[in-house]
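Re: the 80-residue chain
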Amino acid sequence: MKFGTEYRVTHPAIRKPSIRDLEWAAGFLEGEGSFVTTVTTQLVTAVQENPDPLIRLLEIFGGKVKEESGAGVVQEAERG
C-alpha cells in the first residue's frame, strides 16, 4: 500500500475547506480527537454524542462515521 492513498471504503470529501473550516477542524480535533500513526496508517478519531460535527468533518476531509454501542459516535478518517 502506498503512503498517502485512501482505502476504497473511505468516503471522499464533498467540498473544498475554507480557512474558517480548517481553523474549526483544528480546534475541534485538538480538543475532541485523537491521532494515531502506524507504519501503514494514519487515523483520526473523535467520539461524539451529537453527529453534526462529525458530518462537518466528513464534508471537509472525507472518511467514515460509525456508531459504537454505548460510546456515542466515532468519526474515523483512514489513510494508508
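Helices lie at 19-32, 52-61.
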